[in-house]
Write a structure and sequence with these properties.
The structure holds two protein chains of two kinds. Chain A has twelve helices and 15 strands. Chain A is of the alpha/beta class. In chain A, strands 7-6-8-9-10-14-15 form a seven-stranded mixed beta sheet, covered by helices on one side. In chain A, strand 11 and strand 12 form a beta hairpin. In chain B, the strands form seven sheets. In chain B, strands 3-2-1-28 form a four-stranded antiparallel beta sheet, with no helix packed on it. Chain B has a four-stranded antiparallel beta sheet with strand order 4-5-6-7, with no helix packed on it. A four-stranded antiparallel beta sheet of chain B has the order 8-9-10-11, with no helix packed on it. The two termini of chain B are about 25 Å apart. Classes of the chains: A alpha/beta, B mainly beta. The interface between A and B is medium-sized, with 29 and 33 residues.
Chain lengths: ~425, ~325
């Protein structure tokens, strides 16, 4: 006998709950996340992220965690953002993630994507793999974004017409620091470099920057350091004696300019040099496209969105992958066209610019396809400055004072 | 007893010749980095009070009855409601995440809020704080303007580079107008017929006809000796007669003066660094400009277009609003 009344009561309660829910919760429930599926009739753009699990050394600092999703997280976030815009204008973006194991060849995987007609590619690859991909005959009409390699040659003799560079090259980084050092009047540099290919490439860029901005390299010293002491209890004692030895006996200098692209020892120079001098370069004061402490020009917004998604800080490679996907999003949203040739034409046209939280619109240099951009100069925990510095003039883009300007380009695109 | 402050005495003396005492108004400046609102007497230009708000106060608006000041506390995900008589925060309203800018309808009943981190607009009932709608728009919504006839609301989204038109009855987005990169502010002309949208990175202002949702005019700025990329249009204000517009140009450290009929640039007024948002005094004679990087507010005489004074406020001043 109690049953019906219970049911009635329950229904009433459920009804009230429903009304309450409808009144209070419904609007919130109506908010879709960025759409994950294309609505019917939408213009669908597929962007392929290609990466490879290269063996990477453990970061020197415990503060930096080894990451397995660096780069791709930025691409994922940008896809979401493209779709928030896309949902308003019947466009949809999808990310195709293709990641090779350390021992695997990336090329067949990319071939398969190209065969399916996916020619918009974010390449988080080292130079040899990158060139193997861009030189595929099938990739002739593709648009490939380099988000990882800073190698200058890829913008010079080894440039390719289907390759665009989001990440700054070594010359841009060295020039960005050189402008700041010149403004500080710290013009005597003691260069310490490692011996890996990246170290040697950065060293060449430092020499070039010194020449370009009138600084003097008082001494170059190479250093090979197998950091066996990394994360061991007594490591600091060995480092404490090695770093003064490495840095003593140099002529008068203002800064140590370190080229340690692989991050094997550069962080150890700080506070341990023979003379009390600041450290700049690949460590210390770094020239980067992104830094986890950067908050200007609404950068906070991007940091927040990224951290919410990835549950970690945004790295430079996350940022460049984000920006590459945003470049495609911006081109397709504005032009309404998404074939690789059409994207290529639009991003090289005067109508194109993309916002990347640097306070200016970002565009590509026509002569080598490098994205021109301000460069952050960041200490380990805070932003120090942004280059180009005031007073370094250029008739067209101030950002073209960083890296290879048109008159000095060695890039000759072959169709 | 007030302490004798020479600067204030000077300001008071200054105001005797320049400002009609009957028109004394209260100026509110939101200071993004200090988590405060500076309250300034328009006559003496003295700081009356510094109100501590929630974290990261940016957008601010007065209700049409001027009784309440609503401040977006972005990092605390709420609106602080300031009683404009007592200058106390009397209540807070749930705003949805990361409120940046907001507007109130002409009746003072609803508040439209841009939720920057989440990409939607929250509409709440002013009295009860009840959420009436959450409307998805583009990435990083910022600019908010309710049309003077209360029929629709314009929201701009920075990363999407669009102005979204929202029907105030159905809460549906009825049109999306692509503008130049990073649109920041939407402002209706005095006659309510057109809406101006500033694009920070694009360096332009788009004038949109809400009837057709078409851009009828787009114009940029050229200042001799100032690089194009430093010219970043931000806040927009119209004079009371609607004939002249002021556009703050952020990193160009200037406010542009635009003839509304012809869109010709009449002048550039040098102010502090990074002029951001502005407000016009109730009598329309002065323009008050928040300078983000010099932590001050420039007062511009509207008749002569001369910057007259600079008043220190809090750190990273973001916006100004004035109660008659």
């Amino acid at each position: 006998m109690h049953m019906p009344s219970k049911i009635t009561l329950g229904s009433a309660a459920a009804f009230l709950l429903f009304v309450g829910w409808a009144a209070a919760v419904q609007p919130a429930a109506a908010i879709p996340e960025a759409p994950t599926e294309a609505p019917p009739g939408a213009l669908v753009t597929k962007i392929v992220y290609i990466g490879k699990r290269y063996p990477e050394p453990l970061p020197l600092s415990l503060l930096d965690k080894p990451l397995t999703d660096e780069g791709v997280q930025g691409a994922r976030l940008a896809i979401k953002e493209n779709n928030m815009t896309g949902r308003l204008i019947e466009q949809h973006f999808e990310l195709v993630e293709v990641v090779a194991k350390a021992t695997e060849d990336i090329v067949p995987k990319v071939k398969a994507e190209l065969a399916s007609g996916n020619g918009l590619i974010v390449a988080d690859l080292e130079p040899s793999d990158l060139l193997a991909v861009v030189d595929l005959p099938e990739a002739k009409d593709a648009v490939i974004f380099n988000t990882r390699s800073s190698r200058d040659e890829l913008r010079q003799e080894e440039c390719r017409i289907n390759l665009f560079h989001i990440i700054p090259n070594w010359a841009m980084r060295a020039d960005a620091l050189a402008q700041y050092l010149s403004w500080k009047k710290w013009r005597r540099w003691f260069v310490i470099h490692g011996t890996t290919p990246g170290d040697v490439e950065y060293l060449a860029a430092i020499r070039r920057a010194a020449n370009k901005f009138g600084a003097k390299i008082v001494l170059e010293r190479s250093y090979e350091f197998d950091a066996g002491s990394r994360r061991t209890d007594s490591g600091h004692q060995q480092i404490q004696t090695q770093m003064p030895m490495l840095t003593q006996g140099a002529p008068e200098y203002d800064v140590i300019f370190v080229a340690d692209a692989g991050e094997a020892f550069g962080d150890y120079l700080m506070f341990r040099t023979y003379e009390p001098r600041p450290v700049v370069g690949s460590q210390g004061l770094q020239a980067v496209a992104w830094h986890r402490s950067f908050e200007q020009y609404a950068g906070t917004q991007l940091q927040n969105r990224f951290e919410k998604q990835a549950k970690r800080f945004m790295t430079e490679r996350d940022f460049t992958a984000w920006l590459a996907v945003r470049v495609v999003g911006e081109a397709v949203t504005r032009s309404g066209k998404n074939k690789p040739e059409e994207v290529n034409d639009f991003i090289l046209s005067p109508d194109f610019e993309v916002a990347g939280f640097k306070g200016v619109g970002l565009t590509f240099r026509k002569w080598d396809h490098q994205m021109r951009q301000p460069i952050l100069l960041s200490g380990p925990r805070t932003l120090v400055s942004i280059s180009p510095q005031d007073g370094f003039l250029h008739q067209k883009f101030l950002t073209d004072t960083l890296g290879f300007d048109e008159p000095e380009t060695k890039c000759r695109f072959k169709k | 007893m007030k302490r004798f402050i020479p600067a204030a005495a000077f300001a008071a003396a200054f105001s005797l010749v320049d400002v009609d005492p009957a028109s004394a108004a209260t100026i509110f400046v939101s200071n993004e980095k200090d988590n405060t609102v500076t309250v300034i007497d328009s006559e003496t230009l003295e700081v009356v009070k510094t109100i501590e708000t929630g974290a990261r106060p940016r957008g601010r608006v007065l209700t049409p009855d001027f009784k309440e000041l609503l401040v977006c506390a972005g990092d605390d995900n709420r609106l602080d409601v300031v009683d404009t008589e007592t200058l106390e925060i009397v209540r807070t309203l749930e705003s949805g995440p990361d409120p940046e800018l907001l507007d109130v309808d002409p009746k003072g009943e609803r508040i439209y809020i841009a939720n920057e981190d989440e990409g939607y607009v929250t509409v709440i009932e002013r009295v009860s704080g009840k959420v009436l709608a959450e409307i998805p728009v583009g990435v990083e919504p910022e600019g908010m303007a309710v049309s003077p006839d209360n029929a629709f609301t314009v929201a701009t989204s920075e990363q999407t580079s669009m102005a979204h038109f929202i029907d105030n009855e159905t809460f549906k987005v009825t049109a999306n107008v692509l503008v130049d990169t990073r649109p920041r502010v939407a402002e209706f002309t005095r006659d309510g017929k057109l809406v101006w949208v500033s694009a920070e990175i694009g360096g332009t202002v788009a004038v949109i006809d809400p009837g057709t949702h078409k851009i009828i005019k787009k114009f940029g700025f050229e200042i001799p000796g100032v690089r194009r990329e430093l010219i970043q249009p931000m806040g927009i204000r119209f004079t009371l007669d609607g004939k002249t517009a002021f556009v703050a140009l952020s990193t160009a450290n200037r406010v542009a003066v635009v003839d509304v009929a012809t869109y010709a640039i009449k002048d550039y007024i040098l102010v502090g660094q990074r002029p951001w948002h502005m407000a016009l005094g109730p009598d329309g004679k002065k323009l008050y400009v928040a300078n983000g990087l010099t932590n001050d507010m420039t007062i511009v005489d509207v008749a002569t277009l001369k910057p007259e004074k600079s008043v220190p406020v809090g750190r990273l001043p973001w916006g100004v609003v004035i109660k008659p």
